[in-house]
Amino acid sequence: MDAVLWIVLGVLLAVAEVFTTTLFLIMFAAGAFAAAGAAALGAPTLVQALVFAVVSALTLTVVRPVIKRHRRSALESGERPFGVEAIEGATALVLELVDAERGLVKIDGELWTARSYDATQSFDPGRRVRVIKVRGATALVWQDDDVTSGELPEAGG
């Protein structure tokens, strides 16, 4: 029965990692799966907890830094960015007033909810802005000096 509890904990931690993508919770999931293995072999609860703690600590201190070092963004590796990386830095057309509370922009033909990156700024419809960051399904935008109202900057300039 202990093994099932450890497996459930490991699965919950792995699912939570999908939503955080920090490579933190997955290390504890590995510890939980190791403890499940110990439980399946008949180890007492104290040994299971010790296995969980040791494996989690080892993966956090040894494996996580190696994975983070090898995980590079598409921009760093010279590959063509996709997903959120492709949107960050892109130019957007304001369709509905964008301020700190609400807004709507068009990025590469797609509609995105938007908020002003600087809460003191607002952008009127028709204005071109730069996507600074994407949080969930919301683009945080900023008036870029290279982006003028109604015109995109020239390539290379």
TrEMBL record:
<dbReference type="InterPro" id="IPR012340">
    <property type="entry name" value="NA-bd_OB-fold"/>
</dbReference>
<keyword id="KW-1133">Transmembrane helix</keyword>
<protein>
    <submittedName>
        <fullName>NfeD family protein</fullName>
    </submittedName>
</protein>
<keyword id="KW-0812">Transmembrane</keyword>
<keyword id="KW-0472">Membrane</keyword>
<dbReference type="InterPro" id="IPR052165">
    <property type="entry name" value="Membrane_assoc_protease"/>
</dbReference>
<feature type="transmembrane region" description="Helical">
    <location>
        <begin position="44"/>
        <end position="63"/>
    </location>
</feature>
<dbReference type="Pfam" id="PF01957">
    <property type="entry name" value="NfeD"/>
</dbReference>
<dbReference type="InterPro" id="IPR002810">
    <property type="entry name" value="NfeD-like_C"/>
</dbReference>
<feature type="domain" description="NfeD-like C-terminal">
    <location>
        <begin position="85"/>
        <end position="142"/>
    </location>
</feature>
